[in-house]
Amino acid sequence: MQKLFKEAPCTAIIAAINIVVFFFLTFQGRTEDAGFLLEHGGMYVPYVFERNEYYRIFTSIFIHAGFNHLVNNMISLFLFGINLEKTIGKVKFIVIYFISGLGANLLSGWFDVVQNEYVVSVGASGAIFGLIGALLYVAIRNRGRIGNISGRGLLIMIVFTLYYGFTSVGVDNIAHLGGLILGFILGVLLYWKRKPRYNEYRSHY
């Protein structure tokens, strides 16, 4: 754990906050109940724009609907977050994570308005898909690999996850797509591949 905090402190802190929030809410009620989630900061478009409760766009990123939801997201956060943070740095990692998460929520909210169907939305998956999008760009720039993750493996995982989402009920697919696209764009803007440094040379006479 100490090694994790040293190598990827932002990933570790974000994961810890998610876990603490989940168990704090669990002791108060049912985290799989939409009304309970709404009461404790879930994203819900009518409340955001009619009541001006804009904080929900942010707080919902740290709330999870049940233990399985939390575990799946935290596994993904550790897997992709550690690799990206070690490669791109702490500040850029934070920027990608939160802009992707907030942007994914806004896009999901816009889609709710277009469809005229409003549901309570929670979870870190939009932000995590942002990390995946950024990782995909970094992998492309590094000939298909970043750390222990390959670009091909990322693509397969993305296709499988999106397919599962679109064939399941209760998955915020628009947030996933929004986070993925935003993360890729932010990766393009924030990642510059380091050029090799030539400090040593040989002279030929």
Description:
The protein has a single domain (2-188), classed as Rhomboid-like fold (Up-down Bundle), CATH 1.20.1540.10. Residues 200-205 have low confidence and may be disordered. With 205 residues, it is mainly alpha-helical. Helix 2 packs antiparallel against helix 6 (67-88). It has helices spanning 2-7, 9-26, 34-39, 45-50, 56-59, 67-88, 90-115, 125-141, 151-166, 173-190; strands at 145-146, 149-150. The longest helix is centred in the middle third of the chain and has 26 residues, at 90-115. The protein has a two-stranded antiparallel sheet. It has ten helices and two strands, in the order ααααααααββαα.
Brief descriptors of the model:
205 residues, mainly alpha, Rhomboid-like fold, 10 helices, 2% strand, disordered C terminus
